[in-house]
Each structure stands twice: as structure tokens, then as C-alpha cells.
Design a protein that fits this description.
single chain, 104 residues, mainly alpha, 6 helices
Amino acid sequence: MAGPGRPRVLAYLELQTEATRRPWLAALLDPIGAADFAAYAHLLHAAGLPAGPDRARTLALHGAIPHLLAGAPDTLAAAGLDDLEDFAHGVLACVCPEPSEEEP
């Protein structure tokens, strides 16, 4: 986000913000957001890491936070972020996993 792709990220953030005022723009952006998380899940899986839509949304905080800040209800649903409590539990599970039986 701070490297060469920064202008693209800023433009996307501006579009997401504008989409809160223009439903037609949200309708165009919603599938892009959903596809971003699906692509991230694919990358996690290809790297041999635990993957899936929920985990991808949780680990891709750089994508989830703008959706949560600017997203209308339909946008949040399209990105799978319409259940904030479930999302928060997912973040905590990734950051602070339950100790395994082998750990003291």
C-alpha cells in the first residue's frame, strides 16, 4: 500500500467512499471486492496455508477495513462482512488462536 501500488489503492478507497453516495457505483464495486477476497483465499491455498473466504477476509484487513468503514449494507454483504461480530471473532481467532493440547 505504501509502494508503487499506492495511487491505485488511494483511487479505490476514493471510489469506495463515493459509492456510499452513489448506489450505481456500489453495484459496480461490490463484485470487485468479493473477487479480491476470493483471489486472496486462492493465494493462501496455493501457498499451503489455511484458506477459505472467512480466513481471507480476516487476514486481508487492508481490504476489509475500507469495506467496513465505507460500505453500505449491500456492499458489506457482497464482501461477506455483514456480520461484524463474526468478523471480529475471526480476527481474534487468527491473531490469538486457541492453544493446542501440546502447549502448556
